[in-house]
Design a protein that fits this description.
By secondary structure, the protein is α+β, with helices and mostly antiparallel strands. Helix content is 38%, strand content 14%. The longest helix has 16 residues, at 16-31. This is DNA mismatch repair protein.
């Protein structure tokens, strides 16, 4: 498991959110559906989510409600959350 995580984190050519979702899937597979990945970006910890007709990955909305914190989008002009992978 440690090697898988290190390999994912070393891939600098991949979008940060793609790496995040791969980590989320990996930890959910190992620890179950309640696993949560917190990614430190600068001085903030971020949680991401994709929730559309095709995929549901991440727990941003659930965590925001539990902690009573603000949920926001990186790009507020895009209403639907999409995940593009190669």
């Amino acid at each position: 498991m440690r090697e898988e995580v290190a390999e994912l984190l070393e891939n600098r050519g991949e979008l940060l959110t793609i790496t995040y979702f791969k980590l989320q899937k990996l930890f959910e597979k190992k620890y179950g559906s309640n696993a949560l990945v917190l990614m430190e970006i600068g001085t903030f910890f971020e949680v991401y989510e994709v929730n559309n007709d095709e995929e549901k990955i991440g727990k941003a909305k659930e965590i925001a409600e539990l902690l009573n914190i603000q949920l926001t989008r990186k790009n507020k002009s895009i209403l639907e959350t999409l995940l593009y992978t190669n």
